[in-house]
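Hello Y.,

Per our agreement to keep a running log of every chain we model this quarter, I'm adding this entry. I've kept the format consistent with earlier entries: sequence first, then predicted structure.
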Amino acid sequence: MGIINNSKTDPNKILPITYKWAREYYQAGVANNWTPEEVSMQKDIEQWKSRHVLSEAERRMILWNLGFFSTAESLTANNIVLAVYNHITNPESRQYLLRQAYEEAVHTDTFIYCCDSLSLDPDEIFNMYKTIPSIDDKDAFVVDLTKSVFDPTFSTEGTENIQRFVLDLVGFYVLMEGIFFYAGFAMMLALKRQNKMIGIGEQFEYIMRDESLHLAFGCDLINTIKRENPEIWTSSFQDEIVGLVEHSVELEKTYAFDACPEGLLGINPAQFAVYVEHIADRRLERIDLAKRYHRDNPFPWMSQATDLSKEKNFFETRVTEYQTGGALTWD
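Predicted structure for the entry above:
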């Protein structure tokens, strides 16, 4: 038995359930179903057209975050469909991966909806990964880290190949969705707190909820693989992962200073950098690695939004935040 390399598993036979946690992630994703068109953009349009509501720095920050996320969501979806799904032999885990791929498509549609609503130049937004160095550096780092598993001859047989596959999972779940997304979330939700671009802010809240599930699922997937294949979890492999996290933190800090160089609504870029270090420690702990930064959360007002306190033990209790569609409420 195993979540990978299990030739005895029939991927078309989902019962009996082997990994209850994978099924629970799927059910929570369905309960959180949403589409961007449910969110009104009328006030956002009015504020965007006005020359008095948003500063130039805020406009620039909004464009940069739309540009980064539009590409990152596509990269993540491609990785799920073209790499991860092929090597997971457990049917209920595959079911969640299909759900996640759908959610990534919804996120991409969100940025199309925002571009259309605000009459933005789609070429500018969707090509920022080519034109903005700090965005390009983040995307290229993850793509380079994970390119070997896209080789059609790649197999997860053997210790070294399992480690490569785990690095792919770390790259997209821990680094991309768990670190690279969070400074951007903080910036956009800080705007919403000030009653600015509330439609985009609400959509980012929905995206953040989806991503917290993706991150938690990915970490449980990583932990299951290393529990079932303990030979991969060598001290040198752990050091390699820690090094990747540290490098991703530096890339995200660079992006935070670039995207919001003058600060935002009383938040300076140095605080975003501290926040990135804070969440990096949480990601390390989630896959059983030691903290590196020991930073307190500089944004306690985000504890119910961007930095969900239930993330670490997400499904040990019934989660009540996830409701179908429409209203967004926090307990």
